[in-house]
Amino acid sequence: MSTDKRNEAMKSDFLTDIVREDIASGVYCRPIATRFPPEPNGYLHIGSAYAIQVNHSIADRFDGRFNLRFDDTNPLKEDVKYVEAIKQDIEWLGLKPDVYFGSDYSQQIYEAAIKLIRKGKAYVCDLSPEQMTAYRGTLTEPGKDSPYRGRTVEENESLFKQMKNGEFAAASKVLRAKIDMASPNLNLRDPVLYRIIHAEHYRTGNEWCIYPMYDFAHPIQDAIEGITHSLCSAEFKDHRPLYEWVLRELDIPEPPKQREFGRLNISGTVTSKRYLRELVDGGYVDGWDDPRLPTLQGLRRRGVTPEGLRRFLEELGALKNPSTVDSAMLEHFVRQDLKMRSLNAMAVMHPLKVVITNFPADRTEMLVLPNHEGDESLGTRKVPFTRELVIEREDFMEDPIAGFHRLSPGQEVRLKGAYFIRCEEVVKDPLTGKITELHCTYDPLTRSGSGFNARKVKSTVHWVSMSCGIHAELHLYDRLLKETAVLAESGNDWKELLNPASLIRVEKAFLEPSMSNASFHQTYQFIRHGYFYLDNKHAHSGHLVFNRVVPLKDSWKRQNSDMFK
């Protein structure tokens, strides 16, 4: 084992401790193996990435295996487009697991059902779904036995084979486990193992018309693949007794163990696949890859890097209980990653024209600015300085308040990477009184890098040449949901719950001309505004669109986080 792997194995959390104890006691005579089993009926989100991280890190920590297995046992909801999207997301995360499909085990799962029938542990039931619910009982009252529970082994096997052969209508019969209708755990009250679905499967076509339920198929699939630890989120804890019952009744040697960890939620957004679908289908967001969504496709389009996301997930470790993490924590780790890799550029969102009256109108001076203030290896770029510039409107105040040190009449500031300028005149629209431009003078002795130190200024502002700059659309993102939003089990009024400022479009920002060559594989720090990424959905050569990944200000502090106390 390498030093890095040895250090990983020395880490301590409750899941690592479980695996370490199993190794020490010789529970398994095979390598540690975990899996991530998505159903291909939607796109992965940050909660999925957390589950992937938990399972993969445990396997990696003990030199084990990590599998990606598609739980594709419901032809009504699944599609190959989701399979391909999930594969792409896993690859984007930097992982290359072995890929399996639950549908490949259809015959083995069917044979397992036959074995349970022959043991008297499963029966075919004709109750309708509504009747089955009524017979199930409640948390305080036991259920009632199905009138079909007493069918003979021979009758059950014959009926089940008829189900397989397509001789019954959809939903007319099911195969149920025979466990205990009085169990305090409702999952053990004769749960359904198989149902009839007459629909074409995206991989197996019409070969099957009966499909296993997840709670039945999952432990069998784990056993087939030699999984040792089936790590899943906490909502499956009450399902664990059924998982163990299936493996025990099928006489699986060295059965895998199901263990649970806390589900991850992010404040201000939605991590429920059902709610995400409501937002997408209702047109409230720009598809599954909307940068406001916590889907991996949305995070990728926003400009989050897999390295930044992984660092965030690693910092969380193994959560014991369901937890809602402040989105500022995610932004912190994304920002820390982008800080080291992003190229600098100047962008003016709300332009105010500045005329340098003592700079020749026909002259363009090329200034050399570093691409990164802290990393010379990232090189330099040339930025044109001309007579007419734009600065941020907020960087000028005609009647400055106390503490305002940016540009004002008679006040001097430095233009980033260029010269000192002084405001000499304010020009206004005669009808509206709105400031339309500033007339300023520059001091040619104050060029950045010249060593000038005869006087100091209190502020530096960014700028863009008006004649050489390019236009771009900037998208500024905030939390998708209002802070007061409460999601309901049904009937969410998304119009009332969505933050109206979750997306602000700046349609005509001025960018320095170097950004005309912006790359889809590069993030940029627009000075004072944040980190930006070229939108891979709407940007094209004639229309640049940049998404703000995160702003520069970091509001998350480790010492203030309950997770790290």
Parts with pLDDT < 50 across at least 5 consecutive residues: none
Strands of the largest sheet, in order across it?
12-25-26-27-23-24-13
What gross morphology would you assign?
elongated
Mean of pLDDT = 94
Number of strands: 27
In terms of DSSP E residues, the strand content is 15-25%
Indicate the radius of gyration in whole angstroms: 31 Å
Total helices: the number is: 14
Biggest β-sheet, characterized? 7 strands, mixed
Distance between the termini: 32 Å
Which features characterize this protein?
alpha/beta, 7-stranded mixed beta sheet, 14 helices, 27 strands, 24% strand, elongated
Q: Topology of this protein?
A:
Blueprint: H1 3-9, H2 14-24, E1 33-36, H3 46-61, E2 65-70, H4 80-92, E3 98-101, H5 106-118, E4 122-125, H6 129-136, H7 153-164, E5 174-177, E6 192-196, E7 210-212, H8 214-225, E8 229-233, H9 240-249, E9 257-261, E10 264-266, H10 273-281, H11 296-302, H12 306-316, E11 323-325, H13 327-341, E12 343-345, E13 347-348, E14 351-356, E15 365-370, E16 380-385, E17 388-392, E18 412-415, E19 420-428, E20 435-443, E21 460-461, E22 463-465, E23 470-477, H14 494-497, E24 503-511, E25 523-526, E26 530-534, E27 545-550
Describe this structure in words.
With 565 residues, the chain is an alpha/beta fold. Helix content is 26%, strand content 24%. It contains 14 helices and 27 strands. A hairpin with a 4-residue loop joins strand 18 and strand 19 (420-428). Helix 8 packs across helix 9 and helix 12 packs across helix 13 (327-341). The model has no long low-confidence stretch (mean pLDDT 94).
